[in-house]
Design brief:
The chain contains twelve helices and eight strands. By secondary structure, it is of the alpha/beta class. It has three domains: 91 residues, Rossmann fold (3-Layer(aba) Sandwich), CATH 3.40.50.11060; 63 residues, no CATH class; 163 residues, P-loop containing nucleotide triphosphate hydrolases (Rossmann fold, 3-Layer(aba) Sandwich). It binds guanosine-5'-diphosphate (GDP).
Amino acid sequence: SKSTWTIEDSLKELEQLAETAGAKIVATVTQKKDRPDMALFFGKGKIQEISMLIQETNANMIVFDDELSPSQQRNIELMLGIKVLDRTALILDIFAQRARSHEGKLQVELAQLRYALPRISGQGLVLSRLGGGIGTRGPGETKMEVDRRHIRSKINDIEKQIEAIKKQRQLHRENRESSNISTVALVGYTNSGKSTLLNALTGSDVFAEDKLFATLDPTTRQVTLSTNQKVLITDTVGFIQKLPHHLVSAFRATLEEVQSADLLLHVIDSSQINYKQQMDSVVTVLRELKTADKPTLNVFNKIDNLNDDDTLKTMLTTPDSIGISAKQNMNLDLLKTKIEEYFAGKNVNLELLIP
Ligand code: GDP
């Protein structure tokens, strides 16, 4: 539950995120302070300590776990002379690398522009990509105002495009529903093995790697069950514990797939000590989507990594649970059977399955 999510956990996740973005962590700093400093976030002493660390380690970037105000970000950057990111900017960077569908890319760009808008300084640093060379600068207007205006119109433009795609997707979904094809959505914490499971179930090649956010866009594949029934299985974005709230809209596309699914497979990395915490954070997101009541199978993945039978037994006391290994192809037929039983309208009673 929430109370067990510590600063250390949060920093650990931040480190993983930074590594996913391609950074190498050379030092971690925390401060005990009731309230962050208005101007610099850190106190003066801490800033000095960090400044020395930067010299020692040759770090060229600092990532904050908390959200910084635009002015704090700028002040720290000027003070320390290195690039400053907060959690949101880091996640946006990863999204930008990972988005694959047209819609996903637009969503990320929109989030980036919204993030950039209040952060434009007189130098227009943030905007070199957008502002340059357009030549619409009015007389007497500052660069900053021009940049802001460009961003706003770009935001408008992207919002319209996304709206159009959304209508199209809605049509596709209605077609799917009228053709009576059932859908299953894979949900689960980032890195739990959703892409791998989708590959294993469908024999397709969805990109999987041992990094956070291997999956950003919904990817849908068809599976034929032994009953000859066809179901669509959709992979969804990796859930993380501390997702800045205003970034949730960047997930909209995949989240809507979750809302329209008939059945959810909650994929859990059983080899994680804090797997319960990860399950909780997924359920929290599902609750926000008002999908927490959907029929769900809890799929404990990576059981090939477990050398402790008792742990697995404990996990499988969770209702509607199954233990599998997507990678080692363990219990996948059984999982398919469970899906079949669900769609056959049987009273799905998932007994404890210990391999
Ligand atoms: P996603 O972020 O949930 O889509 O996770 P991925 O499918 O990208 O998998 C994350 C990592 O876990 C990859 O390195 C996979 O090879 C690995 N993985 C997935 N399933 C298993 C499994 O059953 N056993 C083991 N040992 N590793 C797995």
